[in-house]
Amino acid sequence: MELRHLRHFVALAEEEHFGRAAERVFVVQQALSNSIRNLEDEVGVPLVLRTTRRVQLTPAGQEFLIGARQTLSLAAQSVERARRAARGEVGRLTVGFVSGLAFGGLPEIVRRFRELYPNVSVDLRELTAQEQESALRGEAIDVGLMLLPVRDPAFDSRALWRQPLVAALPAEHPLARRRKLRIGDLAHEPFVFFPRQIRATYFDQVMRWCAAAGFTPHVVQEAIEVPTLLSLVAAGIGVFLPIEFFSRLSLPGVVYRPVEGAPIVEIVAVWRRAEGNSPVVRAFLSVAAEVLEAQVRPGGPVSPAGVRASGPP
């Protein structure tokens, strides 16, 4: 049984006239008549009563009309669901993210994605970069958002956002009175930082920067989460070099200052190369790029000059 036969039958039942029904479904009258006869042959009972003035449904035809309308409605819904899935508008997406992104970027990305794709279920999982790599391999997440690229041939990645490092200082620190620092200004300061095994590439990037300035940071306290490290800064235990968007995390006793020549750290999206054509993944990446680009545009929520500073140079 073909859907076109059902469409022809419903049109005839509603128009009660072969000519008008044929015009409605864009076929000649003889083709419509043949379609109805084929349908009756397949069902095995007469569905319509043909008279010179009008067409009426038999009792069997009236019952068949109910099912035909339901079938056509379900078919249309299935087609629309398939099209929406192909556009990435339905489905499920599991996103891993490093903790710092909760303070800049991730809330805006998720909010915008849910506005545009309300029928996609989004599951967020806070994971370290290493945990995200494992989760991607095990298909526990679909996309990972992290601060540095992953070098694995099984993955693809896209840089979404580039941010400089800044200095997080205790509010009462003498250097806090300056508008901008040089990395050498921190040579004799105690540092708080991540353990190397948690963010090795980030750690090494900072160490190389400091080494180029002629010193090795003296790390006096380690912690694995950015809020904890900033709390240590507020307590006066040491200084920290976070990415600029962490300056959104306003803690009493902490000030942020730009640093000349600061390295640029990339925020990247990572996904399994084999699933690079997933419509939902493509849709999420598009929204993420759009949102983060808007944030670094002049006048956006967070711009490259978004670190507030005051005091003498």
From TrEMBL:
GO CC aspect terms: protein-DNA complex
Domain HTH lysR-type residue range list: 1-58
A Pfam cross-reference name: HTH_1
InterPro entries membership: LysR_HTH_N, LysR_subst-bd, WH-like_DNA-bd_sf, WH_DNA-bd_sf
Key words of the record: DNA-binding, Transcription, Transcription regulation
Superkingdom in the source lineage: Bacteria
One example GO MF annotation: DNA binding
Residues in coiled coil: none
Family designation: Belongs to the LysR transcriptional regulatory family.
Protein name, as recorded: LysR family transcriptional regulator
Organism: Deinococcus koreensis
